[in-house]
Each structure stands twice: as structure tokens, then as C-alpha cells.
Amino acid sequence: MPYLTAVTFTPDEKETEAIQSALGNLSEIRLLPKLEPRDRAAVLDEADVIVSRSFARAEIDPQEAARLEKTGLVQLIFAGANNVPFDVLPAGVRVASNAGAFAEPLAEHVLCMTLCLAKLILPGHHSLAEGNFAWSVFSKELSGGTCGIIGMGGNGAAIARLMKGVGMRVLGVNRTGGSAIDLDFMGTLADMDMLLKASDVVVLTVPLTRATRNMIGRRELQLMKPDAILINVARGEVVVQEALYHHLKTVPSFSAGIDTWWSEPGDPGGFTLDYPFFDLPNLVGSPHKADRVPAIMPTAVKMAAENVRDFLEGKAIRGEVDRADYIF
Questions:
Q1: Which residues are CB-contacts of 154 (< 8 A; sequence separation ≥ 6)?
Q2: Fold entry, domain 103-285
Q3: Per-residue pLDDT averaged across 232-259, rounded?
Q4: Is this structure's pTM higher than 0.90?
Q5: At 12, is the secondary structure helix, strand, or coil?
Q6: CATH 3.40.50.720 residue spans of the chain
């Protein structure tokens, strides 16, 4: 076969079927975890395409990335490209994220977190467990309110559809000012202050880039309504950790739902926090599992493999990222 595709992880049966169905007649497929070091190096030297979950060190290290001189495309299974070592990856290698592949379950998780915070589910549960029937406490109604979404790719569009479904106005901003669906307002990041001031719920679903790191800090949090809800399903470092903790601590009517953290188990220090977020009653957390539903990985692998097929056939590909955005 004219092409060689190296896969940096061991796919399960359904994921293997998805890869073979999309690429089996176009490319030889080699699974790097099954190769001896010498064979692995040889495949990396010759690979036309690398398919990797997130290009994390557990799958491929920077020294290996540096030798991909013949590679035309790195295709990611996950949406984030912040693990790719662009500083050592050869200049000619294109990188495509799998943005939007996990959009539907992620949007459901955002809605769940929003409702949990708006309806004071956890405080009510804990109050009942302590023998207190706090019936007189008011919760927040979403219908008629405004949801602002920062990042209007596939994830943002799916979130917008659900928020519209519960009766919210939806405002969106992203880098280009374009959206795949109609919103009540769609603008660029220059409109972010307006969105923060106007929204009852703010959802972060942007990639972690030079432009979005520390995007939400003390100033931005103070622009938001005192009783607003902030949901982060982007990356932890999009939000300044210290600023969020102190805002939650000093403005108890404000609340936040966090699925993506500043450090996680795969990081060198593991899952750690600089501040005691879980002592706060106005926080709901989940362990980076907004998109984890049983059938999602075969679906995501299928989308990624089809993008590789388009690349090998000389067609336009989706999700290509600009390396300049990721060199911090």
C-alpha cells in the first residue's frame, strides 16, 4: 500500500473496525504499542500519518515527535491539541484535532451541572441529610435567562441547542465570529466583556492556546452577575485558579461547575489543587468525564479515521490547528 499510518494506542475491537473501515484499502496500519523499539522507530521514520488520542507522553514522547520528518498529518482522537510538542514537531507536519466528536454527551453534562447549581441540588441534599427541610430556599430559573458560550465550535453548538431547549437566550463568541447555528448574538472575543456582563450562565469550551490561557481572571469574574453560574469544560488553565477560588469564597451567590482541572492524574504532580475548592458549597466538580459515555470512543475514532482518509485522498480536512497558537 502507498501509505503508512501509525497508531499510538491500542484500539479496542470496535475502534479497530472503525480504523480498518476508513483506511484499510488506503494505508498500512501499524500499532506502535505492539512493536519492539527498533521496529517502532522505523515506523515513526516512515509514517505518513500518526493517529494519537492526545499526543500525550504516555503514547509518544517529544524525542519521537522530533523524528516525524516524513509525516504529513497528526490526527488526534480528542479535541485538545495542547499536549502536542509543537516546539519539536517538524514544521511540515499538519495537526488536526477531533473537535466536536464528543459534543453531544459534553453538552448534556454542561446542562446537568448548570441545573445542579441553579436548583441548589447538592446543598439541598446535604441539608436533608442533616435533618433540615429547607423548603423556603429559592432556586434559580433558567428559562428566560441568558447563556453565554465562549467557544462556538462543535461543542458550543451542541451546548447552545440544549440551552435554547430549556428556554434560554444564547450568546456566543469565538475567534472568527461565526457559528454553525443561529444564536441570539454571535460575536468575536472582542465582545467577551459584554457576554460576561449579560449572562446568567457562562460556559467555557475553548481550546487551551496562547490566547485563552488565563482568559478568565479576577477582572472577568467581577464583570459577571453576582449570582451567575460559570461552567468550565474547556481546560483548567483557561481560568485563573486563585481568582476563581477567591471569587467563589467572597461572592457566595456565584457558583461554578468544573470538569477540567488545573492538574490531573496524567500530569507529573497528579491531581492537586492550590486552594480548598471542595470546602465551598457553591462548587460542583466532576473528574474530566463530561464526554465519557459507552459508545463515544468508537464514534470519535471513526470521525478521526475518516478525516485521515480525506487527507490521504487529497481532500480538505476538518479541525486543523495553527501551531502558532500552541507555542507558549
A1: 99, 100, 101, 103, 180
A2: Rossmann fold (3.40.50)
A3: 98
A4: yes
A5: coil
A6: 3-100+295-325, 103-285
